[in-house]
TrEMBL record:
Highest taxon, organism lineage: Bacteria
Domain HTH cro/C1-type: 22-75
Full protein name: Helix-turn-helix domain-containing protein
Coiled coil, from the record: none
Gene Ontology molecular function: DNA binding
One Pfam family of this chain: HTH_31
Length: 280
């Protein structure tokens, strides 16, 4: 069957189609970006980025524009197609990294892997090597990951709460010395004024985040976004209702965890269980 002929002249690539539709609707209205911003309520620079395809924005913006232009459901549907496009996943992760660097507070739940912001160099090397990275690429990935630790340093560092499932502490590195170093680093981090560590014992049972790694970022504008990871796929979540649902699950899970003092004692016990390296 021959390929379907494009009649409208509009792009068939979801992200570009969304941008083109936004620009076309505004042009037909005869509005400037500034005029649109005054009516709809977001900053003009956001609408400029939407129309250039630099960002997709949130579903709330798409819904507000549908209402403004009298196109019920059209723009939201185009937004959903653009978000589901595989090419969008890498862009979402880049956006997440930018938001992480700008966050005023962060809180995370980890199911089985040490949070990236708390990984030592040795831990990052082993995890990323298992992910298939090699040679120079592996070195670059480790440098990028461990460089994120600087976010938690300094007087203006944002508050960070890490909730660790017991499995994180029961899954050691292959190198005994490197694993000891990682646990010692956790204890050191827990003493910082801006870092709170809590351990969720396996005995606490099932909970709402039992299979979900999640990081919440509180932003300067007061909003919150979430980044979830399942197996080999991550997703940036900006829709208010979805973020709030995850937050409720996080709060309930945190209530089952050991308090910070008890958690430090738990990590100390794990450290004591690490066998001593044989003397040379």
């Amino acid at each position: 069957m021959p390929p379907r002929r494009v009649i409208t002249g509009r792009s068939q690539e979801p992200r570009r189609r969304y941008a083109e539709e936004l620009r076309s609707l505004r042009t037909v209205r005869g509005e400037s970006l500034r005029e649109l911003a005054k009516v709809v309520g977001w900053d003009a620079s956001l609408f400029g980025k939407l129309e250039s395809g630099a960002t997709l924005g949130s579903p709330e913006v798409a819904e507000a524009l549908d209402q403004h232009y009298g196109t019920p459901g059209l723009l939201l549907a185009l937004w959903e197609l653009a978000v589901a496009d595989p090419a969008h996943f890498k862009e979402r992760y880049r956006r997440y990294m930018l938001l992480e660097s700008e966050a005023v507070s962060l809180w995370q739940y980890s199911v089985s892997i040490m949070p990236g912001l708390l990984q030592t160099d040795a831990y990052a090397y082993e995890v990323l090597a298992l992910g298939g990275f090699k040679g120079k690429t592996l070195d670059q990935q480790v440098e990028a990951r461990t460089g994120r630790r600087a976010l938690l340093d300094g007087e203006d560092a944002p508050p960070f709460r890490a909730l660790l499932a017991e499995a994180v502490l029961r899954t050691p590195l292959r190198d005994v010395g490197a694993w000891r170093e990682q646990l010692e680093y956790l204890l050191e981090a827990s003493e910082r004024r801006n870092i709170t560590l809590q351990v969720l014992p396996q005995s606490s049972g099932l909970h709402g985040l039992v299979s979900t790694d999640v990081m919440f970022l509180r932003l300067l504008d007061g909003g919150t976004v979430a980044y979830t990871e399942h197996a080999h796929r991550g997703e940036l979540i900006e829709e208010n209702a979805s973020v709030e649902q995850l937050q409720r699950a996080y709060d309930a899970t945190r209530d089952q965890a050991l308090n910070p003092a008890q958690s430090r004692k738990f990590i100390l016990r794990m450290l004591e269980e690490v066998p001593c390296e044989p003397s040379t």
